[in-house]
Amino acid sequence: MSTTVIILAAGKGTRMRSHLPKVLQPLAGQPLLGHVIETSKQLHAQNIITIFGHGGDLVKNTFAQENIDWVEQTEQLGTGHAVQMTLPILPHTGTSLILYGDVPLVRKETLEQLLNATKETGIGMITLNVEDPTGYGRIVRTNGKVQAIVEHKDASDEQRQIKEINTGIYCVENAKLHQWLPRLSNNNVQGEYYLTDIVEMAVQDGLEIASIQPQQAFEVEGVNDRVQLSALEREFQKQQALTLMREGVTLTDPNRFDLRGSVKVGQDVKIDINVIIEGHCELGDFVEIGAGCVLKSTKIASGTKVQPYSVFDSAVVGEDTQIGPFARLRPGAVLANDVHIGNFVEVKNSTLGQGSKANHFTYLGDSQVGTGCNIGAGTITCNYDGANKHKTIIGDHAFIGSNSSLVAPVQIGNYATIGAGSVITRNVADHTLAFERAQQTEKANYQRPQKAQK
Ligand code: UD1
Ligand code: CA
């Protein structure tokens, strides 16, 4: 049986008070709607139809890579009206799951359960029992069987006591949607076309409505403002943290961990507090990440220890290296095994060979550093002449004295030694000592200036 997913995403989201359409607000670094699309894809939906309205082009362009049918709802006349917009392209066979672009965390397993429950009946829904049902549609049952959904504003005092609410998520046979949707009216308190009215139509047709409840309430919670957004963000992060801990990662505090993407982990990885992981990262066995580090699209091989407050973007780090604190590895930083990168060292588009060290205050850009090198404190590769970037090549076992400037393009030979404080503009041969500095001037018995008498 083929499944269509219909995603309602036309609302403005006034309460977000944002220039960004609500469904593009990020949760764990991904737009809300992106989470729903991701889940739909995991369900192997044959087609995904998204109803858009506010911020239309921006929403569409954000998901240009996805195979999605877009349907515009120019005026938001209600949830029923929104789904009516899909009828011209909605298949006549199969089943539709109706989801929301601002309800990001519904689980695939829950939707599969709904699909199963609906097989017999042709229509099913997810409901939830809540303490405070104010504002929600109420589930009206007789002898346990769903009879109707009554919106809060249309409900009698007695109906408002009902604590089982409509989450808005349904599964309905497409043939039925074609039958029922054209018959919706807006004859209600809000003057809207209510999608919920199809439930009563189904009952009139003699159908029983299947209903399930989610494992956890957050799955069906929507985002209307930034307070709710932050609550779902924390919930999502908690789930990810639990998964990682079950995979063998030690998280010092799962409440102070953020994964905005994905991470592949070995065993006995330790992650201290306030670490942020973005894009896709990989951490090998025994890797330790200190407090406050930010890792984006980075691979770190086994045994490497990263000290606090180091920042990585698109870096590849070998085994048993030591990094930080306060190190910055930028795109194209490739470190072999046993490398040391210390505090306030920035590495960009550069490779460092096995056992090389740059321990303090250094910039390595567009460089190729051999094995076993010592890059002294304050070494700068001057890679930029104001117009173009140039390469610095440093041979194996070179020793670069502190506070040296290597003006690229320049090549330093194997076992070459650079004296501290040098500005090196010409190539240095293997096994050669090069230094560049003025003679030291001395004045014996020097008298320092005195403060003027008043
Ligand atoms: C709806 C349900 C209510 C349920 C509640 C759960 C109806 C009539 N009521 O309430 O029973 O308890 O959801 O949150 O369906 N949207 C559009 N186009 C529209 C109207 C809405 O795309 O014309 C989208 C909104 O962007 C939002 C979603 O549909 O993502 C739900 O709309 P909202 O107004 O929040 O729901 P209610 O109608 O209040
Ligand atoms: Ca509404």
Short description:
The protein is of the alpha/beta class and 454 residues long. Helix content is 17%, strand content 32%. A hairpin with a 2-residue loop joins strand 2 and strand 3.
Notes on the protein architecture:
The protein has 454 residues and is of the alpha/beta class. The chain has two domains: 3-220, Spore Coat Polysaccharide Biosynthesis Protein SpsA, Chain A, CATH 3.90.550.10; 226-434, Hexapeptide repeat proteins (UDP N-Acetylglucosamine Acyltransferase, domain 1), CATH 2.160.10. The protein is 17% helix and 32% strand. The chain has eight helices and 37 strands. The strands form five sheets. The chain has a 23-stranded parallel sheet that branches. A hairpin with a 2-residue loop joins strand 2 and strand 3 (30-31). The relative contact order is 0.07. The structure holds uridine-diphosphate-N-acetylglucosamine and calcium ion. Residues 8, 10-11, 51, 73, 76-79, 81-82, 100-102, 136-137, 149, 151, 165-168, 194-196, 222 line the site of uridine-diphosphate-N-acetylglucosamine.
* Known CATH architecture of the largest domain: Alpha-Beta Complex
Cofactors and ligands? uridine-diphosphate-N-acetylglucosamine, calcium ion
Radius of gyration: 31 Å
Domain unit count: 2
N→C terminal distance: 98 Å
Task: Indicate the CATH class of the largest domain.
Answer: Alpha Beta
Global outline: elongated
What do we call the CATH homologous superfamily of the largest domain?
A: Spore Coat Polysaccharide Biosynthesis Protein SpsA, Chain A
Please work out how many helical segments DSSP would assign: 8
Residue share in helices? 10-25%
